[in-house]
Design a protein that fits this description.
The protein is of the alpha/beta class. It has two domains: about 140 residues, Periplasmic binding protein-like II (D-Maltodextrin-Binding Protein, domain 2, 3-Layer(aba) Sandwich), CATH 3.40.190; about 80 residues. Helices cover about 45% and strands about 25% of the residues. The strands form two sheets. The protein has a six-stranded mixed sheet with strand order 2-1-3-10-4-11, sandwiched between helices. It has a five-stranded mixed sheet with strand order 7-6-8-5-9. α3 packs across α6. The longest helix is centred in the C-terminal third of the chain and has 20 residues. It is globular.
Length: about 240
């Protein structure tokens, strides 16, 4: 069975000890395409794209935070005005734009954008590297959502290839849950490996992994409903 992980560090704990699965690494924008083209059976997909593309969602695992997330921040730039967001962001740009009543220009080079704009929304591993360097920020999107909305902010859901049998989806999800359980039993190896790969401190990576949440419960499902409403998304098609 083929499963797509998002290439960012927040997926590392989920794929710590997967067995018997063909794992494909992809960006936020690439992951749903792999599902729709039949090149993956399950994939972590941004909530916004799962809704827009009407991709079936298995509500067992997700990527979410309750409070500060660290890896999605509007960093303070040198410019006098204007906001930019990296092109790979979907959920975070939409959430920040809604809550702060601002708009973002899309950019591919965060460093160049920081020299030009007042604030730049950077996500994922690049955001962690900026935090590690001590670059000041204007807002943490997870913290902003918690303060203004009060529910978990879900970034990515576990989506299924259209036509995949529920029993097959459940089997893949169970293997991912087992891998995640192994991480929680001994997170140190993942912390060390992820920090080395990104070139950031292990203390930051350990804190980051305490911020990221994965197991879906009723609170998360309720949070998804709120997120759909506030961001103007179609209802997710749960299986």
């Amino acid at each position: 069975m083929r499963v797509t992980r998002l290439k960012y560090a927040h997926n590392d704990p989920i794929f710590y000890r997967v067995r018997g699965l063909d794992v494909i690494s992809a960006s936020n924008l690439e992951a749903p395409r792999l599902l729709l083209e039949g090149k993956a059976d399950l994939a972590f997909v941004p909530v916004t794209l799962a809704a827009e593309l009407d991709i079936p969602v298995l509500p067992r695992l997700a990527v979410y935070s309750v409070g500060p997330v660290i890896s999605a921040r509007i960093f303070k730039g040198a410019g006098a005005s204007g906001y930019a967001a990296v092109s790979d962001t979907t959920v975070n740009a939409r959430a920040a734009a809604k809550l702060l009543n601002i708009s973002f220009e899309r950019v591919d080079d965060p460093a160049a954008a920081l020299a030009r704009y007042k604030g730049v929304l950077v996500i994922g591993d690049d955001a962690l590297r900026l935090v590690d360097r001590g670059v000041p920020h204007i807002a943490d999107v997870g913290e902003l959502w918690q303060d203004k909305v009060g529910t978990p902010l879900v970034y990515a859901v576990l989506a299924a290839r259209p036509g995949l049998r529920p029993s097959e989806a459940e089997a893949i999800a169970e293997e991912l849950e087992n891998s995640l359980a192994a991480f929680y039993e001994d997170p140190a190896p993942v912390v060390k490996a992820s920090a080395a790969r990104l070139g950031v401190g292990e203390r930051l990576m350990a804190e980051y992994f305490t911020r990221m949440k994965y197991f879906v419960n009723n609170e998360v499902l309720r949070g998804l409903e709120v997120e759909e409403e506030l961001l103007g998304l179609k209802r997710l098609r749960l299986i």
